[in-house]
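In response to reviewer comment 3 from the previous cycle, which asked for concrete evidence that the modeling workflow produces usable outputs, we include below a single protein chain processed end to end. The sequence was submitted unchanged, and the resulting structure tokens are shown without manual editing.
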Amino acid sequence: MSTALVMTAPDVESATAAPVFTGVEIISPLGLSREDHWAAVLDGANGLAPTRQFDSARLGAPLSGEVGDLPVERLPSRLLPATDRMTKMSLLAAEGAIADSGLESAGVDPDAVGVITAASAGGYAFGQQELQNLWAKGPRFVSTHQSYAWFYAVNTGQISIRHGYKGHSGVVVADDAGGLDALAQSARRLRRGSQAVLSGAVDSTMCPWGRVAHTSTGLVSAATDPALAYLPFDTRAGGWVQAEGGAHLVLSAASGTTGYGRLLGHGATIDHGAAPAHEGLARAIAIAIRQAGLAARDIDVVFADAAGVRARDRSEAAAINAIFGPASVPITAPKAATGRMGSGTAPLDVAMALLAMRDQVIPPTIGVEPDPDLDLDLCRTPRRARLRTALVLARGLGGFNSALIVGA
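The workflow returned the following structure tokens.
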């Protein structure tokens, strides 16, 4: 590892009293629960398919990673017309994570429980619907729920209201990197007195308005074959596939609490135009390792950002190799089977990293033939391994880099 990377890292908090992940729930194109999703990932299932919710083929991106029919009967009926599909998914995932944690039966003071989520935008589909009403019919036909349903903080607010949590709460907006930053913010709040925080992200921009926003970047796959649509670290890579879903996780500060694992360290940087493309991500990794009190050799697996865009894949591989050395640590990108979910992408990777440590198995990166020039040890099938730590990477448009380390 380059000495410069360590010496230029800013001072960070120590890893003492690392927060514990006590609850996890996943909602994804592969399942509506953590265990259903996890089983499908290990089976090598592919959740990409032609878009059902709207005609995305005419927008040059015919495939999506869509979540199936939602069990909305679990939600209060008054919320159904007032919330975007994204928020319905978020409420369901939050409900599952809270139940998994045992938080509501533990007698925790609701004033000491916060909600910190991430978002890439807000209720896109709800917003498009009401804008269409505005321009086609007039202001009287715009729902009053539009005032908050489109808002990027809506998931935090609705979760807090439904569960009565009144502790420090917030929302982080940093594109796909925001989910890791929200978890790190939650850890900081726990060190400052909160007892528990519901965090992570569930995201969706699954509508024509949202699809155009993504395809305008030129980074979205135009493939029609799901098996070839999203191929990170492959010479055939032609972009990523837009998806919906994510994960919510409960972090607890309780000493001696049992759970899935601990949040050990986090680093975040912003790319600068004059710097090499990989340098910002490499610095974020170095900061996270330093905060965790570890060395590079202590990392057992890396869950890659895996953009599926040749230039971005090369820069990520360069960052990983700058820290660990060529082909020196197992790499995986199970998101190749689900697509990218905005701010929900990285929390889903964190959830899978925790499940990987629980079961001592690295999930596969399906369909990919790794580019040998990248010098990566990419796991293409489930791999049994001794897993005590995992590094999760995320990058967002605009130069956001985030790296988070979880430990058993």
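The longest strand covers residues 261-270. We consider this sufficient to address the reviewer's concern, and the full set will be provided in the supplementary archive.
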